[in-house]
Amino acid sequence: MILLVTGMVAACGGTPTPNEATSTKNTPTEVAPRAVAVKQAHGIPMGSFDELEYLFHLDTDTTYIINFWATWCKPCVAELPYFEQLTAAYADQPVKVRLISLDFPKQIESRLLPFIEKNQLQSEVWVLDDPDANSWIDKVSPQWSGAIPATVVYRRDQRGFWEQSFESYEELNTIVKPFIKN
């Protein structure tokens, strides 16, 4: 976890800073396999990578955009409006944007919920609570150094990974479009 946090802090330009924010509109639609019970923390689904891994392997006609981020990561926060634009632009299509927060679980109530409320996030927000980053980073993508922001886009057997900050909605939408079933 230290490697992941160090990499994230280095990639995001600093140490976590206090943030303003409050509440969530979070409506996950797929359910975890019966063997996995996803916990809720203040209405936000939360779990270890093993508990959330199924989110990366759903075999449906839906295009999934999964973004790893944190409230203290400036590039992550800067690109969030583009993910929100995707959520709105594809609201009538089988497209799901999931924002996987790497905020510390102890800060859900004090930082994450206020951030979600202040920014009126409409995309699904999940919390990854797994200190053993070395065990799951490669499962997300072997190319991932652990820095955030990082994004996975997939539909069925099509999969792409981007370890970068998107500079515009158009840039993000350009990588998503090929995954959307026409």
Walk me through the structure.
The protein is α/β, with parallel strands linked by helices and 182 residues long. The chain has a single domain (2-19, 34-179), classed as Glutaredoxin, CATH 3.40.30.10. 32% of the residues lie in helices and 20% in strands. The chain has helices at residues 2-12, 49-52, 74-89, 108-119, 133-140, 169-176, and strands at 39-41, 44-47, 63-69, 95-101, 124-128, 150-155, 158-162. Strands 1-2-5-4-3-6-7 form a seven-stranded mixed β-sheet. α3 (74-89) packs across α6. It is globular. The termini are far apart.
Name some characteristics of this structure:
single chain, 182 residues, alpha/beta, Glutaredoxin, seven-stranded mixed sheet, 20% strand, disordered N terminus
Question: What is the fold's blueprint, element by element?
Answer:
Blueprint: H1 2-12, E1 39-41, E2 44-47, H2 49-52, E3 63-69, H3 74-89, E4 95-101, H4 108-119, E5 124-128, H5 133-140, E6 150-155, E7 158-162, H6 169-176
Parallel strand pairs: 2-5, 3-4, 4-5
Antiparallel strand pairs: 1-2, 3-6, 6-7
Helix pairs in contact: 3-6
What's this, in brief?
The chain is of the alpha/beta class and 182 residues long.
* Domain count: 1
Task: Supply the CATH architecture.
Answer: 3-Layer(aba) Sandwich
Instruction: Please give the largest β-sheet.
Output: 7 strands, mixed
Order of helices and strands: HEEHEHEHEHEEH
Topology, number of strands: 7
Question: CATH topology, anyone?
Answer: Glutaredoxin
Can you list the strand order of the major beta sheet?
A: 1-2-5-4-3-6-7
Regions with pLDDT < 50 over 5+ consecutive residues? 1-10, 13-29, 31-37
Q: Percentage of helical residues?
A: 25-40%
Rg, rounded, reads: 15 Å
The CATH fourth-level homologous superfamily: Glutaredoxin
Give the number of helices.
Answer: 6
- Overall SS class: alpha/beta
The CATH C-level name is: Alpha Beta
**Global mean pLDDT:** 82
Instruction: Report the portion of residues in β strands.
Output: 15-25%
- Give the N-terminus to C-terminus distance in angstroms: 40 Å
